[in-house]
Amino acid sequence: xxxxxxxxxxxxxxxxxxxxxxxxxxxxxxxxxxxxxxxxxxxxxxxxxxxxxxxxxxxxxxxxxxxxxxxxxxxxxxxxxxxxxxxxxxxxxxxxxxxxxxxxxxxxxxxxxxxxxxxxxxxxxxxxxxxxxxxxxxxxxxxxxxxxxxxxxxxxxxxxxxxxxxxxxxxxxxxxxxxxxxxxxxxxxxxxxxxxxxxxxxxxxxxxxxxxxxxxxxxxxxxxxxxxxxxxxxxxxxxxxxxxxxxxxxxxxxxxxxxxxxxxxxxxxxxxxxxxxxxxxxxxxxxxxxxxxxxxxxxxxxxxxxxxxxxxxxxxxxxxxxxxxxxxxxxxxxxxxxxxxxxxxxxxxxxxxxxxxxxxxxxxxxxxxxxxxxxx
Amino acid sequence: xxxxxxxxxxxxxxxxxxxxxxxxxxxxxxxxxxxxxxxxxxxxxxxxxxxxxxxxxxxxxxxxxxxxxxxxxxxxxxxxxxxxxxxxxxxxxxxxxxxxxxxxxxxxxxxxxxxxxxxxxxxxxxxxxxxxxxxxxxxxxxxxxxxxxxxxxxxxxxxxxxxxxxxxxxxxxxxxxxxxxxxxxxxxxxxxxxxxxxxxxxxxxxxxxxxxxxxxxxxxxxxxxxxxxxxxxxxxxxxxxxxxxxxxxxxxxxxxxxxxxxxxxxxxxxxxxxxxxxxxxxxxxxxxxxxxxxxxxxxx
Lengths: 376, 300
What we know:
Chain A is of the alpha+beta class. Chain A has ten helices and 21 strands. By secondary structure, chain B is mainly α.
C-alpha cells in the first residue's frame, strides 16, 4: 500500500501552484490575489482566524467552487476548468461527510467504484487502507455505529484509497475532543510520513499548524500574510498581525516612536530602548512598534544597566511556566513568561531586561523591519 | 404506662389514621383523574369512529332499515345485497382500477419529480433559482377553484380531455411536494454533496445515489400525502372526464345518486369498499410512516 502511495510523478515542478487566485462573493472579496507554490510531499498548514479565506482557498483547489480570477495548477496542469474528480485531489471534511447509508467498506470503496475500478481491486485497496488506519474490524459497520475518531479515520481512508496527488484537509480534527485531537494529530503526521503525499491542512489552531506543518501559510482578510516554516513564522513574523496571531501568549507589541538622540536612534514609548539596528535598516524617525516574545523578557536586578522598571499586575500559573502581566511606564501591559518557580507576586515592583537580540521593530504600517536581530 | 407515654401512643394512632385518610383521598383523586382522562379519550374516539361505524352499519342494512327507529347498532343478519349490487350492477371495479392506476402513477411520478426539483432548489445554483421558488410559493396561494377553468381550457386545447393524461398531468404541476422536498434536502450537509462530487458523481448521480437514500423518510410522507390527495380528488376528475371508462371512484360513487335516487345503503357499501385500498396502504406503511415522520421531525 505504502509503495503504491509513494509519489511517482517525477515532476520537478510543484504539486499545486496558485497564481493570483481571487474569489468574490458578490461585492465581498474573499480571496485577494493569492500566490502560492506547494511542493510534492509537502505538508502545508493554512492558518488564520475564521473568515480569513482558508477554507475557500481549499474548496477552490478541490474545484468545489469556481474561481473569480487567477489560475490553479495541480500536478503542473491548469485545473481551472477541471471537474473536482478530475483534479486528482482528495478531501477530508470537518464533519467527515461520510455517507450514512453505506457501511465503512462501501464508504471507503465508493470513489473507486465510481471511478470504474474492478471490484476485486476495490476490495483489496479498501482492505489495505483499512489496515493502515486500523479499521479492519469496523469494515461492515455503519458510520453511526463508530466513535468520532473512527469516523475521522474512515474519512481519511476514503481519501487515501484514491491515491491522489494531494490531500486537502478542512479542519479535520476540530470536531474531536481535546485528548482525541492530540492523538489523531500524531496519527495524521505518522500517516503523512508513510504515505508521503502533498497535504494542505486548513486549521485555525496554531498548535496544530506549528506541530504538523513543514510550512505554514498564515492568512488574514483573504490575503497571505506570511509563508514560512513554523520556526520562521514564530521567530520572525512578517507583520504585527502574524506576531499577535502566533504564539501563546502572543508577542508583546509596544507602540512608540523612533527618534534621533545624541547616542543614535532611540525607541521612545512606555519604555526607552536603543534602536540603531532598526535605523540601520531604514526605519527612520516616526511611529514604530517594538515587539518581543514573552519568553525573551528577563527579570533582573535594579542594578542592571538596561533595567526597565515594571509592576506586576497579575500572575497566571500555567504549569511549568507562569505568565506575568506587567505594567510598564504606567500604561503598557506586557506579558513575561517565566519559570513557575520564580518568586513573583501581584503588586511586586520588578525590573525587566529586553534581550536586544530578540527585539524586533515594525514600521508604521505594521510590517517587520528586517534587521536580522531576531533569533531563537 | 405514664401519662406522657399514653399520650404519645394516642398521638401515633391519630397520625396513622390521618395518613390512611390521606392515602384514601389521594387514591380517589387519582381514580377521578384517570376516569376523566378516559372519558375525554372515549369522547374523541367516539367522534372519530362513529361516522365510520355509521357508514359500515348503513352498508349492512337495506334502505328501509337504515332509518328505522330505534336504530339497530348491530344489524343481524347483515344485509349483503348492497355490496353485491355495487360489485355486479355498477362499474365499481373499473372505477377502483382507474383510481388506483391514476393515484399510483401520479404518486410515483410526483415523488420522483418533486424530489429532483427539491434537490435542484436546495443544492444547485442556477440563474433564476430564487424567482422559480417564489413563483412556486405564489402558486400555492392560488385557490384550486380559481385554476379549474383555465386548466380545463388548457387540457382541452391539448386534446387531452377524456384521457388518463387529463387526470394525471395537472396534479404533477402542484408545487407543494417540491417545496417540501426542498426543505428536507436543505437539512442535509453540503459537505456530503461536495464529497460526492470529489468521488466523481454528477448531479443526477448525487441525487440518485446520495440524496434519495437519505430522504427516504420525507419520500414516504410525501407519497402518502400525494396518494391520499389523488384518491379523494373529485372536482377535477369530474370535469376532465366524461367517458364511463375513465371514471374514478369518487365520481363513480357520487354518480350512484344520479342514477338511482338516494340509496344510502348502496352509497355506504361503495364508500366502505373505497376505503379498502387506502386502509391497506396505511397498514403497510404505518410503522414506517410514524417512525420516519417522527425521525424527520426530530432531525429538523
